[in-house]
Amino acid sequence: MPTPSAPPAPVGSPPAKQRSILLDLAFLRLWTGATASGLATWALPFVLGLAVFDRTLAATDLGLLLAARTVGFLAAVPVAGVLADRHSRRGVVLWAGLAAGAAAPVIAVGLGRSVLLMAVAAAVAGAGQGACRPAYQALTAEVVDAGRRQQANAAMTLAVRVTTLVGPSLAALLAVFLDIRALLLGIGLLWLVAACVPGRGARPGTARDTSGPSAGRGGSSLLAEFAEGVREARRHPWFLAGLGALTAVIATGYSATGVALPMVSRDEYGTEVVLAGAMTAYTAGALGGALLIARWRPRSPGRAALAGLAAYGFAPLSLVFPVHPAVVMAAYAVAGVGVELFNVPWFTAAQREVAPDKLARVSSLDFLLSYGLAPVGLAVIAPAIDAFGATAVLAGCAVVCFAAPAAAALVPSARTFSRTPARGDTS
User: pTM of the full predicted structure?
Assistant: First the structure.
């Protein structure tokens, strides 16, 4: 493992005065690529939804394409984690972006002609997306010095929230002038930016050490190397606890948002304004949370982050009772703030604590579990509402969102998201 050029600051200590991370050219290139990949990832289902709207694509076919993309994502994440630790992370980003970029025009060719061709291409696009996620996470740790990684991660997530907020309006505007196939080609161009713009990682003094046990592992199978990443994750009790809490919140709270919020907006309020307002408030809250956590350094960063994650419970809770629509929107704004108060310290802690040569595999485990189980929650929540009623199911989702992070916070190392206690911490 490399020796850092300077000793790290104690967990929870205030950061030194530093220039903006966006003035760092290496990070700016990485940020641009990650932003392009995030915009392309978001745009595909939206553009395909426009195809359903103009009857070029059937709604059932849309479901098939999105399912194929999810399968590709889940299949690629663990493989990419191994490859990004075994080879150049920059190379993984390049080939993943090129694959996703090539898939977009194939989807355009298949539109109105072959759903099977579109489904195969959607799976390739999902695989490109899945391969990029752990590689970008690990590449951030190579490009950015430890003292500025929280600011860098906040900038990354801020870009995602901005594209989510302005993306629908931009896509709707472009759809006035361009047809669906042209928009799909535009998605392909975004993936080319994601593939080609980021520069090399591994700054001097932070390059991964290849002299340890992982060196010379050319004969190891992908499964064996992924298992090595799982063992590394098990060395960090705070990571296992936090990942369990995150998975529980996504599987319940996000499912309530995806399925129950539209139903409540329609049946209880009789207008789509509540749905649109709540989602806009969530994104705006997340933007505020990213800006806050870019500078804030709480004394117990892990517990503060888990408290932020627990705040998502207010979202399903606001749907349990007949409240004014403004209360629902406020609850979603609080949930958005809380999610980013968790996300940024979580990514930063993984980049700081996990062995550098295993970071991509540990990150892939994170994405595989937290997002991989989300479709299960989405599939189960509607039948559960039919069987037990919306009030009981939403209340249960809220309880899980509050309880899972609280349970994770009981793990001693969760206080700082570190195996090394903070100065003065005797827990």
Answer: 0.78
